[in-house]
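Tutorial handout. Part one gives the primary structure; part two gives the three-dimensional structure as tokens.
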Amino acid sequence: MTIGILLFAHGSRDPNWKRPFESILSQTQAQAAGPVALAFLESMQPDFHEGITSLVASGAQAIRVVPLFLASGSHLRADLPELIAQAKAERPDLDISIATAIGESQVIQESIARYAAGC
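Part two.
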């Protein structure tokens, strides 16, 4: 089974804001076995629906959404499940799961602490 990864970020009206996310996308594509896409909740393209469509077109039979958020706030507790429900309604055979928000990962927290301590 081909598993796609959808990196999911908030978005911003400032086009420079997405540079680090594009870097994360490139690095993830270099390491992942399946297709990888980047999508935004608001203010930027591609949006969630476009990200899902891209991964399916690339052969993904299942999708793991990786929230590039520091914590699971209302966007991850309310908005993301709604987007996933819409995607599953359009593609009932597609398995979509959600990873923990990156900021809730011990590895990421330790990296941030090292960065902060070194500033």
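Part three, for discussion. Residues 74-90 form the longest helix (17 residues). Helices lie at 19-31, 48-57, 74-90, 106-118.
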